[in-house]
Amino acid sequence: MNPEEQIPVKVTVANRKLQLRVPRKNEEFVRLAARMVNKRMDDFKQYEVGEPEDRLAWTALDYTTDLVQLHRHKEDNNQDVYQTIEELETLLNIS
Question: At residue 72, does pLDDT exceed 70?
C-alpha cells in the first residue's frame, strides 16, 4: 500500500463527528490529535468555561501557544548549532 494514499478517517472533536481524508501515514496522528483536543477541552471544564465553543477556543489557544514555543525553541537550538559550527570552522582554520 502507498503510504501517501488518502484514506477516510472519522473522528469526534467537541462532540462533532468529522469525516476527513488524510494520508495513511498520518491516520494515527489525526486520531491522537482528536483525543488530545477532547482531553484538553475536558480539562477546561474545571474552570467553568461553560460553552463547548469557549472550551474549544481555549484549547486551540493553548495548543497554538505550545506550538509557537516549540518553534521558538527549535530556532534557538538551530542558532546554537550554527554558532558552534562557526566556532569549530574558526578553530579548524587556525590549525
Answer: yes
Count Cβ atoms within 10 A of the Cβ of residue 2 and give its class: 0-12 exposed, 13-18 middle, 19 or more buried.
exposed
Distance between CA atoms of residues 95 and 87, nearest Å: 13
Q: pTM, whole model, 2 decimals? A: 0.70
List the chain domain ranges. 6-94
Alpha-carbon span 67 to 56, nearest angstrom: 16
**Per-residue cell: 13:** 472533536
Give the tens place of pLDDT for each residue, 42-71: 998 888 767 888 889 999 999 999 999 998
